[in-house]
Amino acid sequence: MKISVIGCGYLGAVHAACMAELGHEVIGVDVDQEKVDLLAAGRAPFHEPDFDDLLARGVASGRLSFTTDFAQVADATVHFIGVGTPQRADGRGADMRYVESAVDSLLPHLADQAVVVGKSTVPVGTADSLEPLVTGAGGILIWNPEFLRESFAVQDTLRPDRLVYGLSKDSDRAEQALAVLDEVYADIIEAGTPRLIMDFPTAELVKVSANSFLAMKISFINAMAEICDATGADVTKLAEAIGLDDRIGRKFLRAGIGYGGGCLPKDTLAFQARTEELGLNSLDFLTDVNAINERRRQRVVDLAVDELGGDVTGRRIAILGAAFKPNTDDTRESPALDIARRLEKLGADVVITDPAAGPVLAARDSAAPIAADAHEAVKDSAITLLLTEWDEFKSLDPATLNPAQKIIIDGRNAIDPTTWKQAGWTYYGMGRS
Ligand SMILES: NC(=O)C1=CN([C@@H]2O[C@H](COP(=O)(O)OP(=O)(O)OC[C@H]3O[C@@H](n4cnc5c(N)ncnc54)[C@H](O)[C@@H]3O)[C@@H](O)[C@H]2O)C=CC1
Ligand SMILES: O=C(O)[C@H]1O[C@H](OP(=O)(O)OP(=O)(O)OC[C@H]2O[C@@H](n3ccc(=O)[nH]c3=O)[C@H](O)[C@@H]2O)[C@H](O)[C@@H](O)[C@@H]1O
Predict the structure, then answer these.
(1) φ and ψ at 5, to 5 degrees?
(2) Which residues are in the UDP-glucose/GDP-mannose dehydrogenase C-terminal domain (predicted)?
C-alpha cells in the first residue's frame, strides 16, 4: 500500500521506516529540509536503537523515501499525521499549529477516499473538529494514537502492546477507514496484537490518560522517596516490595530525579489545561504530580550545594548524562540539563558528558563544556552527579576516576552504593537516606 507519514521526528521517522519494513511503499514528509536530506540519504537524524539499520534498509529497498513536497503524496491511500504538538508558549495547552498546518498542506493533494490517520498526541475534541475538513476534501479520518517509548521505538512500533482505533460516528466511513488501517497493520494484527475500537474522543483520551498515569506512578514513588529520606527508609526496597503485588506492578517505580522528555511533562499539562477548558477540575491532582516532579530536581541541587559547604561558586561539578533517559539523544525537558542550569545559575562550573546527547549539545553551543567521557568529566571535580542511567555510567569502576573530591549523587539510584563506598566515595542516592 502507498503510505505517507507527515512529520518525520522521533515518532514519524520511525513509523515511516517501520511501515516500509512491513512492505509498504512509504513517503515521509517534513518541512525541515535538513532532516529530509539526512533521512533520504538513509542517515538517522537522531539516536534511536535499531532505527539506523531499518532506515538504511528501507531507503535501499526503494520503498522508503522522504520529501518536503506534499504534492508527491497525492497518490497515497493512507496519510499518517505525526507532527509535533509541543507546549504552547504560555506553558499549558498543546500548540496545535503544526497539526493545523500539516492538514492544510495535505488536503489539496488528498485522493478521493484517502484515509487520514491522526497519530500526534492532541487535546480531546481535535478529531471531531478536523473531521469536516478531511471529509470536505474527500478523505476519511481515523484516530490512531501512538504509545511508543523512545529508545524502544522500533520494537514498540512493530510489536505494540495494543492498537487503538478511534472511529468517526459516521458508520460507513468508519468501516472503510478501519478496513484500510487493518490492511496497513496486517502483520502486527496477525502477530496477536490486541486492537481496540472506540470513538474519536475515547481514543484521544486513552493516549493522554496513559501518559498521565505513568507520570502519576513516577511522582508517587518520588513522593515515597521524600518520605524515605525523612525517615531513614530505602525507596528502592519499598518499590520492590510494593511492585511485587501485581495489582501495582514493578514498572515505573524507579525513584530519582523525575520524568522528562518530549511527552510526559507536556502531555500532563496539556491534559489538565484541556480538562479545565471543559469546566472540570478532575485533574487537579496533576498539579501535585508536576510539583513533586519539579522538587526532585531541586533536591539534587540542594544536596550538591550542602555537600559543597553552601556555596558552589567556581566549583567544578561533573554531570553524567544529558538525555532525558538512556539510549536516546533527546534532551527535551531533560531533568539532567535542568539541574545543570540550576547549578550554573548558582555559579558552579558544570561539565557534562553523555554518550549520545553530548554531540547534540555541543552542536547547540551548550553553555557547559562537554566532556568526551565520564573520566574526563569527573577529573578534578568537587562533586559528581549521575543523572542519566546509561550502561556505561552504571558500569564505571569508581577506583579509576580522579575527582578532586570523591562525592557522588546518584540521581537515578543506578549504581551500587557499596562498591562506590568501598572505593572511598561518599554516596547519596534518592530516597535512600
Ligand atoms: N516522541 C515520542 O516518543 C512520541 C511522540 N508522540 C507524539 O507524536 C507527535 C510528534 O512527536 P515527536 O516525533 O517526538 O516530535 P518531533 O518534534 O521530533 O517531530 C515533529 C516533526 O514534525 C515536523 N513538522 C512540523 N510541522 C510540519 C508540517 N506542517 N508538515 C510536515 N512536518 C512538520 C517537524 O519538522 C519535526 O520533524 C507529538 O504529538 C508527540 O506528543 C506520541 C508517542 C511517542
Ligand atoms: O507519548 C509519548 O511520547 C511517550 O511517552 C513516554 O515515553 P518516553 O517519553 O519515551 O519515555 P519513558 O520511558 O516513559 O520515560 C519518561 C521519563 O520518566 C522517567 N522515569 C521512567 C520510569 C521510572 O520508573 N522512573 C522515571 O523517572 C524517565 O527517566 C524519563 O525521564 C511513554 O512511556 C510512552 O508510552 C509514550 O508513547
Answers:
(1) -125, 115
(2) 318-417
